[in-house]
Design goal:
Layout lengths: L5 H24 L3 E2 L5 E3 H7 L9 E4 L5 E4 L3 H9 L9 E12 L4 E12 L6 H14 L5 E7 H11 L3 H12 L3 H9 L7 H4 L6 E2 L1 H7 L7 H16 L5 E4 L12 E7 L7 E5 L1 H5 L7 E7 H12 L1
Parallel strand pairs: 1-5, 7-9
Antiparallel strand pairs: 2-4, 3-4, 5-6, 6-12, 7-10, 8-9, 10-11, 11-12
Helix pairs in contact: 1-12, 5-10
C-alpha cells in the first residue's frame, strides 16, 4: 500500500497492529496456541510437493553451500514440514501463527501478511464444521456483508480420475478450472476422446449455488464413489452451519495441490480477493513422514485491512 505522507503510514500500521492483536486474542480464547513458522523452504522439496505452483513467482536465494532456498510462499507447507517429521502418535496441535509469504509478481517481491490457523491430529464428524465455524466467526467480527464459497477436492479428484486424463491434459484442465475459463474448458474437452465422466466435467461451472440446487443438478450426471464422498461431506456442512452467507462451488481449485477434502474461501463486500482461504489436507502430511488429519485456513491481513481502511475513510 502506498502512502501520501508519514502520518497516513503510521496510522495504517497502528490499525494493522490492532487488527492482528484482535484476531490473535480471539484465537487464544478459542484455545489455539501460538507458534512461529520458519521463513525459508528448500526450493526442490517445495516445488515437487506443490507441483502446480508458479515456479517463476517463487523468491529464490542461495545458502552458503549453494543450495537453492525460497522465501516461503505458503505457511501451511512450512508448518507441516516443521512438525510432521517428528510427530508423536496421539498428538493434537491446535495452533495459530502470524507470518509473511513472498511472491515475485513480475515487477518486484510482494510481501503478504497473514494469520494462519491449523488443527492437526484430530478428525471427527464435527472437525470440518468446527474449523469453518472459527473462520466464519472471524469474518463476522468485521462485516455482516460476507460470503463463504465452499468446495470439495474429493469431488473434483474423483471426476478427474473418471476422465482418465494423461498428465498434460490433467494439468491443463485444472488450469482452465482455476481460471474459471468455461468456454476454454468446453473447447479443450471437445478435442479429447469422450468418456462418460466428461458429461459432468463439461457442466461443472454450473454446479454452484445452494446445496439443494447443486444436488438436484447432479441427478443423471456421472458420479463415482470418491465424488459421492465429497458431496456427503458438503451435505454434513450444509446441515451443521447455520449462517446463510454460504454458497457451494464444485469447480473450486486451489493453486496449491495438497487439499483432499473441503476447500473454502471467504469474501467481504468491497473486495474481489479472498479474505480467508483454507481447507483439509490429510494426505499432504504423508509426504513428510506420517498421514495425520489436518485442516486450516489463513486470514489475509493485507486484504482485510484494505476493506476496513476504506470503511473508516
Amino acid at each position: 500500500m502506498n502512502f501520501l505522507n508519514i502520518k497516513d503510514e503510521i496510522n495504517f500500521y497502528q490499525k494493522m497492529y490492532i487488527l492482528r492483536r484482535e484476531i490473535e486474542d480471539f484465537l487464544y480464547k478459542e484455545e489455539y496456541m501460538n507458534v512461529e513458522p520458519f521463513i525459508f523452504e528448500e526450493y526442490d522439496e517445495f516445488t515437487n510437493i506443490n507441483s502446480r505452483i508458479d515456479k517463476k513467482a517463487t523468491v529464490k536465494l542461495l545458502d552458503n553451500t549453494g543450495e537453492i532456498l525460497i522465501l516461503s510462499p505458503d505457511i501451511t507447507t512450512n508448518i507441516i514440514n516443521k512438525y510432521i517429521p517428528r510427530w508423536d502418535i496421539g498428538t493434537k496441535l491446535k495452533i495459530f501463527y502470524y507470518g509473511k509469504t513472498y511472491k515475485y509478481n513480475g515487477i518486484g517481491i510482494k510481501e503478504n501478511r497473514e494469520i494462519g490457523v491449523e488443527l492437526i491430529g484430530e478428525k471427527n464428524k464435527n472437525t470440518d464444521e468446527y474449523v469453518l465455524g472459527t473462520a466464519i466467526k472471524i469474518m463476522k467480527n468485521y462485516s455482516n456483508d460476507y460470503l463463504f464459497e465452499i468446495g470439495n477436492s474429493k469431488f473434483l479428484k474423483g471426476l478427474m480420475q473418471g476422465c482418465s486424463f494423461i498428465n498434460e491434459d490433467y494439468y491443463n484442465v485444472l488450469n482452465l478450472l482455476h481460471s474459471k475459463n468455461k468456454q476454454g474448458l468446453k473447447e479443450y474437452l471437445s478435442k479429447l476422446p469422450y468418456k462418460e465422466a466428461m458429461s459432468t466435467l463439461v457442466n461443472i461451472f454450473d454446479l454452484e449455488g445452494h446445496f439443494d440446487e447443486i444436488n438436484e443438478q447432479l441427478n443423471g450426471l456421472y458420479m463415482n464413489d470418491l465424488m459421492k464422498d465429497g458431496i456427503n461431506e458438503l451435505y454434513n456442512i450444509d446441515k451443521s452451519i447455520t449462517t446463510k452467507n454460504i454458497t457451494y462451488d464444485l469447480s473450486m481449485v486451489s493453486e496449491l495441490s495438497y487439499y483432499d477434502g473441503i476447500i473454502f474461501r471467504g469474501y467481504i463486500k468491497g473486495s474481489n480477493t479472498e479474505i480467508i482461504k483454507g481447507g483439509r489436507y490429510d494426505s499432504f502430511t504423508e509426504q513428510y513422514g506420517y498421514k495425520i488429519p489436518g485442516i486450516g485456513f489463513s486470514v489475509e491481513l493485507d486484504e482485510l485491512i484494505k476493506v476496513l481502511y476504506k470503511e473508516v475513510n
